Amino acid sequence: xxSVSNTMRDAMTMLRRQVVHTIRYPVILMIAGIPVxxxxxxxxxxxxxxxxxxxGGTGGRGVYLAYVLPGILLMTVAMGxxxxxxxxxxxxxxxxxxxxxxxAISRGAVLSGxxxxxxIQQGIGVALVVGAALLIGFRSTTGPIQWLGAVGVLxxxxxxxxxxxxxxxxxxxxxxxxxxxxxxxxxxxxLGSGFVPTAxxxxxxxxxxxxxxxxxxxxxLRGLLVGTPIGASAWVAMAWCLAITAVGYLWSVRLxxxxxxx
Amino acid sequence: MSHNLGSTRARSRAAAIQVRGLRKSFxxxxxxxxxxxxxxxGTVFSLLGANGAGKTTTVxxxxxxxxxxxxxxxxxxxxxxxxxxxxxxxxxxTGQFSAVxxxxxxxxxxxxxxDLRHLPKDEGRRRAAExxxxxxxxxxxxxxxxxxxxxxxxRLDLAMTLIGDPKIIFLDEPTAGLDPRSRRTMWAxxxxxxxxxxxxxxxxxxxxxxxxxxxxxxxxxxxxxxxEGTPAELKRxxxxxxxxxxxxxxxxxxxxxxxxxxxxPDADALTLLVPCDAGVASLRALLGRLEAESIEVASLSVHxxxxxxxxxxxxxxxxxxxxxx
Lengths: 262, 325
Known about the structure:
The structure holds two protein chains of two kinds.
Chain A lengths: L2 H22 L2 H5 L2 H19 L8 H32 L2 H7 L7 H27 L8 H28 L3 H6 L2 H5 L15 H9 L2 H13 L6 H25 L5
Chain B lengths: L2 E2 L3 H4 L3 E12 L2 E12 L3 E5 L6 H8 L7 E6 L2 E2 L4 H7 E4 L11 H11 L4 H14 L15 H13 L5 E5 L7 H16 L3 E6 L2 H7 L2 E6 L2 E6 L1 H7 L4 E5 L3 H10 L4 E3 L4 E5 L4 H13 L6 E5 L3 H9 L10
Parallel strand pairs in B: 1-11, 4-9, 4-10, 7-8, 8-9
Antiparallel strand pairs in B: 2-3, 2-5, 5-6, 10-11, 12-14, 12-15, 13-14
Helix pairs in contact in B: 4-5, 4-6
């Protein structure tokens, strides 16, 4: 067998290990339900007032639901990433990872297993949120091709923030620190166009909101889901995702290869 | 001070592990101060030393977990620095702390290792079942390892080490914290492996364990080797053992003390410490003299030379930091 198929085989073995972990220790899956609660909170608590400020002052709860969905979807992905940082950090304290390091396993396989299971968990979370949104009256105005595009965008974002979170899980030696490091990812949709139009923000914050990576991602998602103009946002979003993935991956592999005290 | 008690048997075989001038410091704490090791193929080599002597660091370096500061290492003929993956394919490690996945069952743990060693699926499962059977874990194979006892975890750890048919096995204090029965099982497994041609590097704090298993022993003290040789060669360096006789009344103690001139009496504890090499012949002679003098002994205990004695003999007056059993 050549080294590429060995790498794939090792990564699949590690994914199977993670799947069994998830089944035996399903707390992580319960976390996938939290964004649904956030969606309901935003739509039913804030939605009436917030919606009134949209669509030239004529919007309501339903308009706000369509507006806020991309932001909630990104929070779903970000929360999944936080779970990844925790489980990577916990795994590194286990003796079995030291054993993996004495074996001729491709370096990235252990981490790839974590990334793959995290993407699956984020996928479940996204499906739950979309399902809840449909139940409370969300109707997409676009077609299946745009929906596929939205899935693709979410997958790219998930891959990017997950690799970044793997690095967060590796860079610290305590699980508590690891769980806090990806916290800014949860806040970024708020400091962008996730919950309110950036035009309503104070100047300094607006400047930040317009240039931070989550804003073009949210604009692209919104365009694909409800047909608002996307413009250059799609390309900027893709560039951000690729760049974050590359940084997260290279940083993670480097951290995994480093010597750690016994 | 270094005693190198070269023996021709080990030197004549191919070297499974070759270490030259190995050095490692953590900050300004020197853990390994230039050690040399030659472990012949198909033998058991024991690194004997107290906690903090550098045993675990040596194993971590040889198993590619820790990079040394300097020195040359070849494992199974592969250079540790240039060809770490070839080294990794030849070795397996069972450390002091069990390296099993607590959320998986025993069987799943061993199959995980079989998959990572790239065994064909069916063969991996068959071999895993065989190993669990051999290590007396067949019944528990389907239970999560979080329910296993310490001894069971250690045996599972060993099954995970053995499944890839490693040529060289590192056992870092494999019996620390095990009950006597599990310890004997572990020893039997080690003997079995060596009979199959596997090379084993074993670290231990216990002279008895090294004596039972090792073809050669190296004594590690504060990062340096203070002696190396066969168990018999090493024992010649340490003072003999002793027998402690316990008496019921002071009269018997006094007459016994008159009989054995070199003995040390303790009038308060009513005991007498008699130097004796703990062999059956010497014991029989000792009991014979007690019988001849009609001295009543309440009980006696035999003490072989232990790690304390080795340290005292090899490192001078300084107390070892560990209490040997």
